[in-house]
Design brief:
This protein is of the alpha/beta class and 343 residues long. It has one domain: Rossmann fold. Helices cover 39% and strands 16% of the residues. It has 13 helices and 9 strands. Strand 8, helix 10 and strand 9 form a beta-alpha-beta unit. InterPro entries: AB_hydrolase_1, AB_hydrolase_fold, AB_hydrolase_sf. Keywords: Hydrolase. This is Alpha/beta fold hydrolase. One of its GO terms (molecular function) is hydrolase activity.
Length: 343
C-alpha cells in the first residue's frame, strides 16, 4: 500500500484539474494506492492515543465529507477515518470500472487489510450500509461494531420518492437526465438533494449549504461523475436481485458484530418500515428511530447518533471513557434514544 498525504487537499493526481476538496478544521486527507484502486481517506486525529479505530463509508453520490460532523462528535471515542469509495469524493474510478456492491466492499476490505487497522467500528450510510453489511458478513474479523444509518437493503415495495434514484440504473436514463438538467446550477442541484435526503432541509447551516454547493461544482467537472453514479446505482439494484448466500438480507443474518440501526421517519429513499425487519435480521442489534430525520441522520442529528453509538460501546463493554463518571454519563445520555428489540 502506498500512501500520500494531501496537506492542502488537492485533487488526486489521476483526476483532472478541478477545484480542491474541502477539509474541515482538524481533518486531513491522504491518497492511498491499492491494487486496482486509489482511495482518498479523510482522517480526524483522536482526542487521545490508544482509541479503537473506526471507518465511515458514505452513500450513493456522497463522499467522506458526509461524516465530518459525526467524526468530530466521536473524536473522544474512536480514531476515525472516512473513505471516498472509488469514483466518489476525491477517489478516481476503479481500474476495472466495477461499481458493484461486491467491488465497493472489496475496496473497503483491501484498505482495512493493507492499513492493518482492523478490527474497526464500521459505519455505513445508504449504499455504504449495504457495502458495510457485506464486509461485516464476509470478514467478521475486521469489524468490532457495525452502525448503519438508513442502510440500502432490499425492499419489496420501494417508496415512490426513491424511484427516480433507482431509475439511474436503467440504460439511457442518466444521459436523458443530464440533457434535461443541463441548465441547472450547482445551487439548484444541492437544494434538490437536500430536499430528498434531509427530513428538514432547514437543519443545514448556511456554511454547510455553501460547502455542499462548492463540492457539487467541483464534482460536476469530473468526466466520470455520472458514470460512477449510474454504475453504482446499477450495482445496488443488481445486489437486490441476488439470492442464496450473496443476498443482502441473508448476509445481514450472518453479521456477528453488535449492530446499531438508525432509521429516519422522513426518509424518502429507504423505507422507515424496514427498520423492524432490519432489527430482527441482524442477530445482535439495537434500533434507534428518529421520526423527524431523513436519509442522512448523521448529518442532521450528529449529536443524537453519537450518543447512541456511545451507548452501544457501553452496552458491549467497549467504551474507553476516561473515568467511571464519564462512562455513567454516556450510558444515561442514550437511554431514551434507542431500543433493543430482543435481538
Amino acid at each position: 500500500m502506498s500512501s500520500t498525504e494531501l496537506p492542502s487537499a488537492p485533487a488526486a493526481s489521476a483526476l483532472p484539474k478541478v477545484a480542491t476538496v474541502r477539509v474541515a478544521e482538524g481533518e486531513r486527507l491522504r491518497s492511498v494506492g491499492l491494487p486496482g484502486i486509489t482511495l482518498t481517506v479523510r482522517a480526524r486525529p483522536p482526542a487521545r492515543e490508544g482509541l479503537a479505530p473506526a471507518l465511515y463509508v458514505h452513500g450513493l453520490g456522497g463522499s467522506s465529507q458526509n461524516w465530518s460532523a459525526l467524526m468530530q462528535q466521536l473524536e473522544g471515542e474512536v480514531d476515525g477515518e472516512a473513505v471516498d469509495l472509488p469514483g466518489f469524493g476525491d477517489s478516481p474510478p476503479p481500474d476495472d470500472g466495477d461499481y458493484s456492491i461486491t467491488a465497493h466492499a472489496r475496496a473497503v476490505i483491501r484498505y482495512l487489510d493493507a492499513s492493518d487497522r482492523g478490527p474497526v467500528h464500521l459505519f455505513g450510510n445508504s449504499l455504504g450500509g449495504a457495502v458495510t453489511t457485506r464486509v461485516a458478513a464476509v470478514r467478521p474479523d475486521l469489524v468490532r461494531t457495525l452502525t448503519l444509518v438508513s442502510p440500502a437493503l432490499p425492499e419489496i415495495r420501494v417508496q415512490r420518492t426513491a424511484v427516480p434514484t433507482g431509475l439511474l440504473a436503467v440504460p439511457g436514463v442518466t444521459a436523458l437526465f443530464t440533457r434535461l438538467t443541463r441548465g441547472w446550477t450547482a445551487e439548484q442541484r444541492v437544494r434538490g438533494v437536500m430536499h430528498l435526503c434531509y427530513g428538514d432541509p432547514g437543519r443545514a447551516t448556511p456554511e454547510g449549504f455553501r460547502n455542499a454547493v462548492e463540492e457539487m461544482e467541483r464534482r460536476l467537472q469530473l468526466p466520470y461523475f455520472w458514470d460512477a453514479m449510474t454504475r453504482s446505482a446499477r450495482g445496488l439494484v443488481n445486489a437486490y436481485t441476488l439470492g442464496g448466500q450473496h443476498a443482502l438480507w441473508r448476509q445481514a443474518e450472518r453479521v456477528l458484530a453488535p449492530t446499531l440501526l438508525i432509521y429516519g421517519g422522513r426518509d424518502q429513499l429507504v423505507g422507515y418500515r424496514m427498520s423492524r425487519k432490519a432489527a430482527h435480521s441482524f442477530r445482535d442489534s439495537r434500533l434507534l428511530t428518529l421520526p423527524d430525520a431523513g436519509h442522512v441522520a448523521m448529518m442532521e442529528y450528529p449529536e443524537v447518533v453519537a450518543r447512541a453509538f456511545r451507548e452501544l460501546l457501553v452496552e458491549t463493554g467497549q467504551s474507553q471513557a476516561v473515568n467511571p463518571r464519564e462512562r455513567a454519563d454516556v450510558a444515561g445520555d442514550g437511554e431514551a434514544a434507542s431500543e433493543n428489540p430482543g435481538s
